[in-house]
UniProtKB/TrEMBL annotation:
Protein name: S-adenosyl-L-methionine-dependent methyltransferase
Organism per entry: Pseudovirgaria hyperparasitica
An MF annotation (GO) of this entry: O-methyltransferase activity
Alphabetically ordered keywords of this record: Methyltransferase, S-adenosyl-L-methionine, Transferase
Pfam families attached to this UniProt entry: Methyltransf_2
InterPro entries tied to this protein: COMT-like, COMT_C, SAM-dependent_MTases_sf, WH-like_DNA-bd_sf, WH_DNA-bd_sf
Length: 437
């Protein structure tokens, strides 16, 4: 059986962050900028050498150094802006400006405006307004708000053209639609949810904002286009970056399993299973998810993997069927953070009850750090994801201690035999076995 090993330490205490002054922030910006400028020049030389077959491409360590320098530079720039604006202006901008920036982006995405603007050249706002059936003056005001954060530009009066940011909007459509059409209203329901006492039937601000007693999953399950859009969103955010599927592929010794059955619990359209099956020919993958995803999953599985990757409609709140009870691995990737503790315990117990000797449960989730333990840019995203789990699902991101407590409550015989956070990954892979083995 492949093992994750060890490698994650949860600090009991975290040293306080250094208080940055304007001088130290400027010094950081300068040093990171000069490093990245030199690094870009070096990369160009290395790429030229690769093209001429004279040497290797940029090393993984070099990439990591560049990424760290970029993160420090962005972080220092944000802090410098806050320091120069002062607390009053910073708060005013968050309250007044940010919400209008979001709804202008929401409007642009909703009406697919970026797709109507030519890649080269410009188009009149009047022509755009005619295409999307909106008043020209109203559309102009929305677009000009978006231009303040570099979405589109107005090269001549009454005409707009693309910027590098607006060119990305069509590719990001699944993310923008889910975040701005579904999650943004949920976030605005937070105060009402807090005031009503978080009744048993209403577990999240999503339910308050969308006027339903259904959970997000029940609500979306009744609306096939919504659940399919969510699947496209998940596929997008796991294609590159800290949530890339490749971290699951290289974060566990899958090849050591030999011929084995892996059950991808809540595997959506099967994008994780497909990548694992492609990388490890001896594995058989079973995707389990809602019936509504059957058609899109069948379309996702390429012809050469049919038979080795299959989709089975199944609720993870129900006992496993005979076809999956003999699995070697049950994979729970980005599942448990969507649910409150009691629901997670139910999900885990359905697996521990049928876990055969030698089999494992692998939980691929973010492990929350203590405040100040990671750089501010990473913490901003971590805290935002935790808030999103709360407002959208009534779930949460968890610390290592939270995970340990949850597993023990689900089954006292469950033991964490390994925790690994692959380099560059936001998620850790937690391997669970029964201690009686």
């Amino acid at each position: 059986m492949g093992s994750l090993g060890t490698g994650l330490v949860s600090p009991a205490t975290t040293p306080p962050r250094q208080v940055d002054t304007i001088d130290t922030l400027v010094d950081t910006i300068k040093s990171c900028f000069y490093f990245l400028r030199h690094d870009a020049s070096l990369q160009n030389e290395q790429q030229k050498a690769v093209n001429e077959s004279k040497g290797p491409s940029k090393t993984e360590n070099g990439f990591r150094e560049s990424l760290n320098a970029r993160t420090r530079l962005v972080q220092a720039c944000r802090l410098l802006i806050n320091a120069l604006e002062g607390p009053t202006e910073t708060s005013k901008n968050m309250a007044l400006v940010d919400k209008h920036s979001l709804v202008s982006l929401q409007t642009i995405n909703h009406y697919r405006i970026a797709e109507l603007v030519p890649a080269n050249g410009d188009i009149s706002i009047e022509a755009l307004a005619d295409k999307v059936k909106l008043p020209a003056d109203t559309l102009a005001r929305i677009l000009r708000q978006a231009m303040t954060y570099q979405v589109f530009r107005e090269p001549r009066n009454g005409y707009i053209s693309h910027t590098v940011t607006s060119m990305e909007i069509p590719r990001l459509e699944p993310l923008l639609t889910y975040q701005l059409e579904v999650c943004l209203p949920s976030s605005l329901g937070l105060i009402r949810w807090l005031k009503q006492g978080q009744e048993d039937a209403i577990k999240s601000p999503f339910q308050v904002a969308h006027h339903t007693e259904d959970s997000w999953w029940e609500y979306a399950g009744k609306r096939p286009s919504l659940i399919q859009g969510y699947g496209r969103y998940m596929e997008l955010i796991t294609n590159g970056g800290p949530h890339d599927v490749s971290h699951v592929v290289r974060g566990f010794a899958w090849e050591s399993l030999g011929e084995a059955l892996v059950v991808d619990i809540g595997g959506a359209n099967g994008f994780v299973s497909v990548m694992l099956a492609d990388a490890f020919p001896s594995l058989t993958l079973m995707i389990q998810d809602s019936t509504n995803l059957q058609e899109v999953a069948d379309a996702t599985i390429p012809a050469h993997l049919k038979g080795r990757v299959t989709f089975t409609p199944h609720s993870f709140f129900e006992p496993q069927k005979s076809t999956s009870r003999g699995a070697d691995i049950f994979l729970l990737r980005h599942i448990l953070h969507d649910w409150a503790d009691e629901d997670c315990i139910t999900i885990l117990r359905q697996l521990t009850q049928c876990l055969k000797p030698g089999a494992s449960i692998i939980v691929a989730e973010q492990v929350m750090s203590m405040p100040g333990a990671v750089d501010r840019e990473r913490e901003r995203v971590m805290r935002a994801l935790d808030m999103q789990m709360m407002v959208q699902f009534g779930g949460k991101e968890r610390t290592l201690e939270d995970w340990e407590g949850l597993f023990q409550r689900a089954d006292e015989s469950l033991e964490m035999v390994g925790v690994v956070k692959p380099d560059g990954s936001a998620d850790s892979l937690i391997q669970l076995k029964k201690s009686s083995e």
